C-alpha cells in the first residue's frame, strides 16, 4: 500500500531568488564576489546541487576587515549575503586554509587554521552560518581542536578538511605533526566522536570524500617509510559514521612505489570506495600522474602502486580529478609536449574506467594546445560521463592570464570551441580558478582577479561566472530559471539523508512530468509531482521520509516517454 508523505513543492525555483538574473554574458564583465584592497587567498568552493554555490577564503589583514569570510551565490548569480560575504573570524592573526561543507539546511560549516595571540599553539577553529547568512556559533568561531578527546599531543595542526555528514553536521579532519585526526561535530559544534586515522609520523596533504553511507574516505601523503629511503607514499582509510576505521590500522597502501608520491586527490567511486590520483616521482626526473581505485573493503582494484595516466614521460603538474559517475575517474593536468611557446605547458585529460583502463588514448585527450602557455587546470564532472575543465591561459596578452574552459564528452572529444571558451578576459591577470557543477551540465567558475590593479589595488578580488553545458555564458533567464538543455533529474541532496531530502528536475519542453519514489523492491512509496510544466522551469521537491525505514530508495522522473532514476540512501 502506498504511503502518504508530506511534500513541499516549489513550482518556480527562481521564486526563492532575486527576480532578475545577475550572471553576465560578457567575459570582460563577470560577477564580482568580493572586491577591495585586501588580498584573498586559500579559496574553497562547494555546490549544493541545485545551482547555489558557496565559498570561503582568507581575506588579507591589510586593513581592519581581515579575516575568514564566506559567500553564497544563488543559481541566478545574486549574492544574498552581500558583496564581500560574511566575516566569520575577524581576530587579527594568521589564518590558514579555510575549508567549507554544506549543513543540509541551506547553510554551511567552515573551518580554518588559526594562530590567534591567546593560544600557545595553532588550532583549528570552525563556524556555522545559516541559510540566511546568520553566524550561529560564538563570535570568531569555536576551537575545534580543543574538543579532541583522543590522546594525541597537538604539535602543528594543519590543513583542515570538511565534509557534510548527511545529518546536518560535519566531519573535520586535519594533519598533525604526529598523526592524522578525524572528528564529527553536530550542528551546534558539539563533538560526536574523534579518532586518530593515522598515528604514524608524517601524514600530510589529506583529502577526503564521502563513502555514500554516511562515512568518510581519506587519503594522504605518508612519510612512515622515509627511514628506509622510500620517501613519501600514498595511504587511505575509510571511517564509518560511528568513527570506526574499516580498513587496516593506520590505513591501506595506495602506492608505495620508489621515491616520492605526493599531492593526492580523491573522488568517491559511487560504490562505497574511491578513486585516488597523485603526482609520482618513481621512474623519472619529474612528476608523472598516477591513479588507483580502492573498493569499499579497502582492496586496490587497479595495478599495484597505481596506473600511469599517460604513456608520455613529460612532467605532469597540477593534476586534479573528478569522478566519471561509473566507478572511474576523469583527470586533467598541465604538461609540456613541445608545442607551446618555449616548450610551455598545455592542458590534457584522461578518463580511466572502473576496471582501470585508459579510455582517451594512451596519452590522453587534448583539452587546449594553443601555443601560448596554459596552467593550473581544475575539473568537475558534467553529469554525463564527461567533464568541464577550466584553466589559466596566456593567449591574449603576453604575461596577462585569462580564464578559459572546455567541456569534454565521455569519449574525450571537446564539445566547445577549439582550445576552449573565454570565461574571463578582463584587464590584467585572472588566475587560480576553482570550479563546481551547475544545473544543466554546466559549471560555476571562481577565480582570483586583478582587473582593478589600475585603481591602486595590488591584491586579488574574487569574481565568478556560470557557463552552460552548451558553452554559453549566463543562460539564466530573467526570473531566475535556468534553461535546461535536456530532460534532467538531479541527484537528491543531502544524500544520505534523514529524514528529508531535496529533489530537483528540469524538462526541455512543455508537458506533464511525473516524479515518484520507489523502494528497493520496486514498490511505489510516494508521488511527489504529477502536473503540467513548462520548459525552462526548475522544480524543487522535498521528500520527507519520516515514516519510512532506513534503506535504499529511488527517485524516478517520467516526461515525454523518457525516464530517469537516481538512487537515494535513507539513514536513521
Can you walk me through this structure?
With 572 residues, the protein is mostly beta strands. Among the domains are: 338-476, no CATH class; 488-570, Macroglobulin (MG2) domain (Immunoglobulin-like, Sandwich). Helices cover 0% and strands 48% of the residues. It has strands at 7-10, 31-34, 40-47, 53-59, 67-73, 86-89, 95-102, 108-114, 123-129, 142-143, 158-164, 170-176, 179-185, 191-198, 203-210, 216-222, 233-239, 252-255, 261-268, 274-280, 288-294, 307-308, 316-323, 329-335, 346-352, 365-368, 374-381, 387-397, 400-408, 421-424, 430-438, 442-449, 461-467, 488-489, 500-506, 511-519, 524-533, 538-544, 551-559, 562-570. The strands form ten sheets. A four-stranded antiparallel sheet has the order 1-38-35-34, with no helix packed on it. A hairpin with a 5-residue loop joins strand 15 and strand 16 (216-222). The protein is globular, with a radius of gyration of 23 Å. Residues 1-21 and 477-485 have low confidence and may be disordered.
Annotation keywords:
four-stranded antiparallel beta sheet; mainly beta; Immunoglobulin-like; disordered N terminus; 572 residues
Helix fraction, binned, reads under 10%
User: What is the subunit organization of this protein?
Assistant: single chain
Biggest β-sheet: strands ordered side by side in the sheet: 1-38-35-34
Q: Provide the β-strand percentage band.
A: over 45%
Total DSSP helices: 0
**Class from helix and strand fractions:** mainly beta
What is the overall pLDDT average?
Answer: 86
Shape: globular
Biggest sheet layout? 4 strands, antiparallel
Kindly provide the radius of gyration, computed on alpha-carbon positions and rounded to a whole number of angstroms. 23 Å
The stretches of 5 or more residues where confidence is low (pLDDT under 50) are: 1-21, 477-485
Number of DSSP strands? 40
Distance between the termini: 22 Å
Amino acid at each position: 500500500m502506498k504511503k502518504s508523505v508530506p511534500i513541499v513543492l516549489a513550482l518556480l525555483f527562481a521564486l526563492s531568488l532575486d527576480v532578475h538574473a545577475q550572471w553576465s554574458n560578457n567575459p570582460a564583465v563577470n560577477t564580482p564576489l568580493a572586491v577591495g584592497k585586501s588580498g584573498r587567498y586559500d579559496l574553497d568552493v562547494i555546490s549544493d546541487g541545485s545551482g547555489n554555490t558557496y565559498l570561503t577564503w582568507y581575506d588579507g589583514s591589510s586593513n581592519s576587515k581581515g579575516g575568514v569570510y564566506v559567500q553564497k551565490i544563488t543559481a541566478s548569480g545574486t549574492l544574498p549575503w552581500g558583496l564581500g560575504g560574511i566575516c566569520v573570524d575577524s581576530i587579527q592573526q594568521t589564518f590558514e586554509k579555510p575549508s567549507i561543507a554544506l549543513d543540509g539546511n541551506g547553510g554551511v560549516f567552515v573551518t580554518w587554521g588559526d594562530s590567534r595571540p591567546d593560544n600557545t599553539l595553532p588550532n583549528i577553529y570552525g563556524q556555522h552560518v545559516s541559510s540566511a547568512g546568520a553566524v550561529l556559533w560564538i563570535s570568531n568561531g569555536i576551537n575545534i581542536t580543543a574538543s579532541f578527546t583522543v590522546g594525541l599531543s597537538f604539535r602543528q595542526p594543519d590543513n583542515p578538511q570538511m565534509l557534510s555528514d548527511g545529518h546536518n553536521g560535519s566531519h573535520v579532519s586535519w594533519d598533525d605533526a604526529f598523526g592524522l585526526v578525524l572528528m564529527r561535530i553536530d550542528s551546534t559544534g558539539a563533538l560526536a566522536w574523534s579518532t586518530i586515522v593515522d598515528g604514524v609520523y608524517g601524514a600530510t596533504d589529506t583529502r577526503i570524500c564521502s563513502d555514500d553511507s554516511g562515512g568518510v574516505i581519506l587519503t594522504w601523503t605518508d612519510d612512515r617509510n622515509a627511514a628506509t629511503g622510500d620517501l613519501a607514499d600514498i595511504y587511505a582509510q575509510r571511517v564509518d559514521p560511528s568513527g570506526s576505521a574499516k580498513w587496516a590500522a593506520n590505513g591501506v597502501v595506495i602506492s608505495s612505489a620508489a621515491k616520492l608520491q605526493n599531492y593526492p586527490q580523491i573522488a568517491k567511486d559511487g560504490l562505497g570506495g574511491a578513486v585516488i590520483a597523485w603526482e609520482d616521482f618513481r621512474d623519472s626526473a619529474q612528476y608523472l600522474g598516477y591513479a588507483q581505485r580502492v573498493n569499499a573493503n579497502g582492496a586496490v582494484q587497479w595495478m599495484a602502486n597505481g596506473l600511469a595516466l599517460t604513456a608520455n614521460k613529460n612532467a605532469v603538474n597540477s593534476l586534479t580529478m573528478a569522478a566519471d559517475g561509473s566507478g572511474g575517474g576523469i583527470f586533467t593536468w598541465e604538461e609540456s609536449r613541445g608545442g607551446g611557446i618555449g616548450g610551455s605547458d598545455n592542458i590534457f585529460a584522461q578518463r580511466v574506467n572502473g576496471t582501470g583502463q585508459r579510455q582517451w588514448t594512451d596519452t590522453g585527450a587534448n583539452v587546449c594546445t594553443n601555443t601560448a602557455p596554459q596552467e593550473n587546470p581544475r575539473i568537475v564532472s558534467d553529469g554525463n560521463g564527461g567533464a568541464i575543465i577550466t584553466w589559466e591561459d596566456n593567449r591574449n596578452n603576453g604575461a596577462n592570464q585569462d580564464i578559459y574552459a572546455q567541456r569534454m564528452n565521455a569519449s574525450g572529444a571537446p564539445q566547445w570551441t577549439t582550445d576552449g571558451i573565454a570565461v574571463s578576459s578582463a584587464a590584467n591577470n585572472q588566475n587560480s580558478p576553482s570550479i563546481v557543477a551547475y544545473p544543466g551540465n554546466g559549471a560555476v567558475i571562481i577565480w582570483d582577479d586583478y582587473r582593478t590593479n589600475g585603481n591602486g589595488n595590488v591584491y586579488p578580488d574574487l569574481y565568478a561566472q556560470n557557463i552552460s553545458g552548451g558553452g554559453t555564458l549566463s543562460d539564466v533567464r530573467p526570473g531566475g530559471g535556468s534553461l535546461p538543455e535536456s530532460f534532467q533529474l538531479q541527484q537528491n541532496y543531502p544524500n544520505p539523508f534523514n529524514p528529508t531530502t531535496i529533489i530537483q528536475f528540469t524538462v526541455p519542453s512543455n508537458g506533464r512530468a511525473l516524479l515518484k519514489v520507489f523502494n528497493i523492491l520496486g514498490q511505489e512509496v510516494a508521488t511527489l509531482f504529477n502536473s503540467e510544466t513548462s520548459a525552462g522551469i526548475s522544480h524543487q521537491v522535498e521528500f520527507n521520509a519520516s515514516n519510512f525505514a532506513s534503506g535504499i530508495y529511488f527517485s524516478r522522473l517520467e516526461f515525454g516517454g523518457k525516464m530517469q532514476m537516481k538512487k537515494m540512501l535513507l539513514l536513521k
